[in-house]
Amino acid sequence: MTNATQDLRIVVADDHPVVLTAVTDYLDQIPGHKVVATAGSGADLLDTLRSTPCDLIVTDFSMQGELEDEDGLRLISRLRRLYPDIPLVVFTMLTNGGILHELAELGVAGLVGKDEPIPTLAQVCQRALVEPGTTLSARIAERLATEGSTADEFRRTNPLSPRELEVVRLFALGLSVTEISKRLSRSVTTVATQKRAAMRKLHLESNADLIRYASEHGFA
């Protein structure tokens, strides 16, 4: 980690340049903090981390990517597997309790909503470095409190599996079943089956119903 004479080295990733610049500029002006690299996609982030030592990773959850491990739960899972000792703070527009619980179970150090002020992100980053478990922003904590305090509690009342959650999330972003199959490295048949299973569990009859549900429940 860092010592009294060394800045906290941070890598920041987001696929929106304005957000990336704003977060980078804010973190850089905090005494003792230094953004040593930025990335505009999951692939860029993975490449950057191979050659750039850091003490903290701050990344968006949903980023454009062609491969299965460049976005969403797959990306976060891979980052946790490759860099288990580097705290990982995720900021996201999503408010779906299932996805947020899955992120906490993966062992991320912090969760922040992208609709919250940048100082909130900085506060969560600072707390995540010293507090065990997953540090939550106030809005994320409030959301999870209404969804059940643990992933097990959430699953008892919310029927979708992690794989179905990912399919619904990507479908809500506008990807076709074929595009989702390529993104997740699953067959078209598998993705179509998971989409139908999600719709059946949620008692939805059409694609429009699914998109509306996803919007109302924080998938997009």
What does this molecule look like?
α3 (72-82) links the parallel β3 and β4 (88-92). Helices cover 52% and strands 13% of the residues. A 6-stranded parallel sheet has the order 2-1-3-4-5-6, with helices on both faces. The chain contains 11 helices and 6 strands. The radius of gyration is 17 Å and the shape is globular. It has 2 domains: 8-152, 3-Layer(aba) Sandwich (Rossmann fold); 159-216, Orthogonal Bundle (Arc Repressor Mutant, subunit A), CATH 1.10.10.10. α8 (162-172) packs across α11 (207-216) and α9 crosses α10 (188-201). It has helices at residues 17-28, 42-51, 72-82, 97-106, 118-128, 138-147, 151-157, 162-172, 177-184, 188-201, 207-216; strands at 8-13, 33-39, 56-60, 88-92, 110-113, 135-136.
CATH architecture of the largest domain: 3-Layer(aba) Sandwich
What is the average of the pLDDT values?
A: 86
CATH top level assignment of the largest domain: Alpha Beta
Anisotropy-based shape: globular
- In spatial order, strands of the major sheet run 2-1-3-4-5-6
Largest sheet: 6 strands, parallel
Q: Report the uncertain regions.
A: none
Our count of domains comes out at 2
Order of helices and strands: EHEHEHEHEHEHHHHHH
What class, by secondary structure content? alpha/beta
Helix count, DSSP H or I runs of 4 or more residues: 11
What percentage of the residues does DSSP assign to strands (E)? 5-15%
What is the gist of this entry?
The protein folds into two domains: 145 residues, Rossmann fold, CATH 3.40.50.2300; 58 residues, Winged helix-like DNA-binding domain superfamily/Winged helix DNA-binding domain (Arc Repressor Mutant, subunit A, Orthogonal Bundle), CATH 1.10.10. It has eleven helices and six strands.
